[in-house]
Amino acid sequence: RNSPIVLASAKYNIAMNSIINYFVALSRRLAATIPPPSEKNTLWVLPGLISRMVEELTTTQSLQDMAILTVTFVLVMELVSVSVYHIPKGLTSSIPVRGKHLDMFSWKDYLFIFVNKCMTGIFVYCYFGYLWAVRKVEHDHHDHHDHNHNHVLRQHHDRHDYNNEGEEHFSESHCCNGGSGIWALEDLSLTNTILPIPVLLVVYDFFYTLLHWFLHIKSVYAFVHKHHHHQKAPSRANIDAVNVHPLEYFLGEFNHVLALHLVVKGIPLLGFKGMDVSSAGALAFISLGGILAGLNHTRHDVVARIPCLGLSKTGWTIFDSKHHDVHHRIPQSNYGQYTVVWDRIFGTFREYDQNDRVNPAYQLDPATGKTKSFKKE
């Protein structure tokens, strides 16, 4: 009964409960800084969120919470990077190195990586903060703050109701037109957790493809994106992925918030009315994004295909890490991050050619991760 194993297990449970309770309290404090749901069907929730964040983060407690949030997600990113780098070894073949590998980082590389990692906490706060700000509010479950806020909105609506029949159109189940953020565990479903993921990926990559193309414009390239292309043969997974100019990292990360907004609230021009997205689905989206971005910056040959029911022997390729390897060697192609569907549509797609010349001197030493001739230089 008092064996070392039992005592160690008890201490472990106590420690885990303390950690969980701490992060639950931290999440509640940060959630309290987020504006309540709004009826406006616009992206102006995000600027309001950032303004509120700047105001709230002047307190010592909020600064401490944000610092802990940042450190926590940086550690998670490191775990993802290490996993993406090591797990596929032995399970997949290796992509031959055709471009010059960046063996040693400069002070600028280390600085940019550090700054970008420090921005992670702000991005996570705004990303999930937006989903919380457009959450589904049920009459029996919202807190006192939301109740008072909805009461004010109801009074405002009553004063400005121009419906001829005088009917009230205020809805307590949806904060605005389109879908909502789903947070209650009992409300999780395949339609608000799994279904939004491919939609989010496609919407995200549409804007990322355009952004990436813009960063390659000659008059812009030298100031921002050129730094990332010092690496012709990425290999360090997420470390190489985040080795970009901080402005580019900021735009790329907050593009996830834009994608989340458009998927939840809809795209009227396309007749898309939006859909509910759960917190689990939103987490899965950025987690999968981190994994795919990491794989794009390794030498692992990873391909994901969907069977085409006899239309193709190999199926339809939805992800291929070799496509981004092509981009690092031939920059005016394959601008997509998670998929090249938009490159195919825009005419910027370039297929990987396994017959391209391979320079033996550029190959990497598995033991060091650097060019085999690095020690001789």
Description:
The N and C termini lie far apart (63 Å). The chain contains 14 helices and 4 strands. Helix 3 crosses helix 5, helix 3 packs across helix 12 and helix 5 runs parallel beside helix 11. It is globular. The strands form 2 sheets. It has a two-stranded parallel sheet. With 377 residues, the chain is mostly helical.
Summarize the structure.
This protein has 377 residues and is mainly α.
Topology:
Layout: H1 4-31, H2 45-56, H3 60-86, H4 107-118, H5 120-133, H6 144-159, E1 181-182, H7 190-193, H8 196-215, H9 218-221, H10 238-241, H11 246-265, E2 277-278, H12 279-295, E3 303-306, E4 316-320, H13 321-329, H14 341-346
Parallel strand pairs: 1-2
Antiparallel strand pairs: 3-4
Helix pairs in contact: 2-5, 3-5, 3-12, 5-11, 8-11, 8-12
Q: How would you write the strand order of the largest sheet?
A: 1-2
Q: What is the count of helical runs?
A: 14
- What percentage of the residues does DSSP assign to strands (E)? under 5%
The amount of helix comes to 40-55%
| Secondary structure category | mainly alpha
Number of strands: 4
Low-confidence stretches: 139-176
Largest sheet: 2 strands, parallel
Question: What are the key terms here?
Answer:
two-stranded antiparallel ribbon; 4 strands; two-stranded parallel sheet; mainly alpha; 377 residues; single chain
